UniProtKB/TrEMBL annotation:
<feature type="compositionally biased region" description="Basic and acidic residues">
    <location>
        <begin position="173"/>
        <end position="188"/>
    </location>
</feature>
<dbReference type="GO" id="GO:0042393">
    <property type="term" value="F:histone binding"/>
</dbReference>
<dbReference type="GO" id="GO:0005730">
    <property type="term" value="C:nucleolus"/>
</dbReference>
<dbReference type="InterPro" id="IPR013256">
    <property type="entry name" value="Chromatin_SPT2"/>
</dbReference>
<dbReference type="Pfam" id="PF08243">
    <property type="entry name" value="SPT2"/>
</dbReference>
<feature type="region of interest" description="Disordered">
    <location>
        <begin position="1"/>
        <end position="217"/>
    </location>
</feature>
<feature type="coiled-coil region">
    <location>
        <begin position="249"/>
        <end position="281"/>
    </location>
</feature>
<keyword id="KW-0175">Coiled coil</keyword>
<feature type="compositionally biased region" description="Low complexity">
    <location>
        <begin position="60"/>
        <end position="70"/>
    </location>
</feature>
<feature type="compositionally biased region" description="Basic and acidic residues">
    <location>
        <begin position="122"/>
        <end position="134"/>
    </location>
</feature>
<feature type="compositionally biased region" description="Low complexity">
    <location>
        <begin position="146"/>
        <end position="158"/>
    </location>
</feature>
<feature type="compositionally biased region" description="Basic and acidic residues">
    <location>
        <begin position="71"/>
        <end position="96"/>
    </location>
</feature>
<dbReference type="GO" id="GO:0006334">
    <property type="term" value="P:nucleosome assembly"/>
</dbReference>
<feature type="compositionally biased region" description="Acidic residues">
    <location>
        <begin position="189"/>
        <end position="211"/>
    </location>
</feature>
<dbReference type="GO" id="GO:0006360">
    <property type="term" value="P:transcription by RNA polymerase I"/>
</dbReference>
<protein>
    <recommendedName>
        <fullName>SPT2 chromatin protein</fullName>
    </recommendedName>
</protein>
<comment type="similarity">
    <text>Belongs to the SPT2 family.</text>
</comment>
Length: 284
């Protein structure tokens, strides 16, 4: 009995669950159908709205096209009126000869000018002269007529104008650097040559001084005196002086050489900086 009661209770619960599931499925189907109908209604509303918008746009384009067509007709009418006025002012045009007929007439005229005169075009006197020339065995040359057109003079065609000279090519940074280096080397070589000439002049002066000193010694010897002993006397000593003339001259030379080296070093630094700047600008 207890088993039967439990069985009936389980069957009742299963039936209730099936009914609940069927009810929920029916509600879900109803909601789905409602949402589908709502979506379809929205699509229909959107389609109607798009159709109305397209109709409005077409009406607007048609309304905008009407004034333009009217303006075109007015412009065409104005052009026709202007053309008629111009034709009326010019008058009737003369008939023009076609290009082929004109060229044909010019060619015929040129052939008529180049053809040799025949017997039919010669006068009676010219025919008589031709017979006489034939009897004598010489060629007959027709004398120029008074009414004949003078020969054309050869006209010189003007020589074509010389083409404008091309602008000078701009030097590159490398070419400018090479040119500056060559100029610097030339200046340095000129300075060295000037220094060598100065040294040679000094050597010549020293040789001349030695020659003059030897001559003076000989002259002093004629009088029985020794010039070297007289010159060796300490008459006006310069021991208290800081530097002699020779030391000052050497110092000036060293200072000039040092200054020249400094100038060359600064010039090379400037050229190197310029070259790097040009390379950086070209790479950018």
């Amino acid at each position: 009995m207890q088993f039967e009661a439990l069985k009936r209770e389980a069957q009742a619960r299963a039936a209730a669950q099936r009914e609940e599931l069927a009810r929920k499925m029916a509600e879900r189907d109803a909601k789905r159908n409602e949402s589908e109908r709502e979506a379809q209604r929205r699509q229909e509303d959107r389609a109607r709205w798009l159709a109305k918008e397209r109709a409005k746009a077409q009406e607007a384009r048609a309304a905008a096209a009407k004034p333009s067509a009217l303006a075109e007709r007015r412009a065409a009418a104005a052009a026709r009126v202007e053309k008629a006025a111009v034709e009326k002012a010019r008058g009737p045009e003369k008939p023009r000869t076609p290009a082929f007929q004109k060229a044909k007439a010019q060619a015929a005229e040129k052939r008529a000018q180049l053809t040799r005169p025949s017997d039919s075009t010669l006068t009676r006197e010219e025919k008589r002269q031709k017979r006489m020339a034939k009897d004598l065995g010489v060629s007959f040359r027709r004398a120029p007529r008074a009414d004949a057109a003078p020969p054309r003079k050869a006209t010189r065609t003007p020589a074509p104008a010389p083409a404008p000279a091309a602008p000078p090519r701009r030097k590159t940074a490398r070419e400018q650097f090479v040119e500056d280096e060559a100029r610097r080397k030339r200046e340095a070589a000129e300075e060295d040559s000037e220094d060598d000439m100065y040294d040679e002049d000094e050597d010549e002066d020293e040789d001349e001084d030695d020659t003059q000193a030897s001559l003076r010694d000989e002259i002093w010897g004629l009088f029985g005196k020794k010039r070297q002993q007289y010159m060796a006397r300490d008459v006006d000593s310069d021991e208290d002086m800081e530097a002699g003339a020779f030391d000052v001259l050497n110092e000036e030379r060293r200072a000039a050489a040092h200054a020249r080296r400094e100038d060359e070093r600064e010039e090379r630094a400037l050229l190197e900086a310029k070259r790097r700047k040009m390379q950086a600008r070209g790479g950018a």
